[in-house]
Fold this sequence. Notes:
The chain contains eight helices and 17 strands. By secondary structure, it is an alpha/beta fold.
Amino acid sequence: MTYRVLIIEDEVHQQELLVSHLQAFPEFNVMDIASNINDGKVLLEKHAPDLVFMDVMLPPHTSFDLLNSLSSIPFEIIFTTSFEEYAVRAFRLSAIDYLLKPVDKEQLVSALEKFKQKKSVSDSAIHIKNLLTNLNVSQANLAKVALPTLTGFIFVPVKDIVRCESDNTYTTFFTLDKRKIIVSKTLKECEQMLADYHFFRIHNSHLINMDYVTEYLKGEGGVIKMTDGSHLDVSRRRKDEFLRQLKKG
């Protein structure tokens, strides 16, 4: 099976690097290259690609301006960016693939494999819609996180997450409506995703939403009580920072 590929990238050397890497994968046929969002929109209609490599920054616009202008998104997207922190948390929340520039060939191989394994473009469109929503909001009560499960993804409002509990390479999310959602992510990955949303890691095994702490009991590290009734230990080395965060409210 062959896939039609479009590259939307304003830097010529990055265009050339990506094309060079893709030559090792003959099933991925680069149809065309655009250097700005206006040309990109024209080429999207012309080629109807299966996969688009899209630079985040396309001065004086961003690729999100292009996506917001489309009535539908019938293709998969792999974003590329030079800025490690630019929108990265939004990508992680929405389970969207991205590559840091200059694009590394091993990372590209991984991204292409994910592309081939995805169930459908319609699923991808849901993730893109969630990404655009998360990029356009700054408040936790509007943001949603895409949680990967055995059967697909569950989209959960960040404000509904009470806490996360580690079990080796898996993490269980506990929500306000008493759901327990097990995902194949480490607690560290979950901590990175939720770093902007008032979550704090009190222990190697526990990441909590600070908005749902109801009580703190003093001790060596101390114990906190959450709104779901759980009692969780605070590690000794995290105690001081936790208390500082607690005072901030």
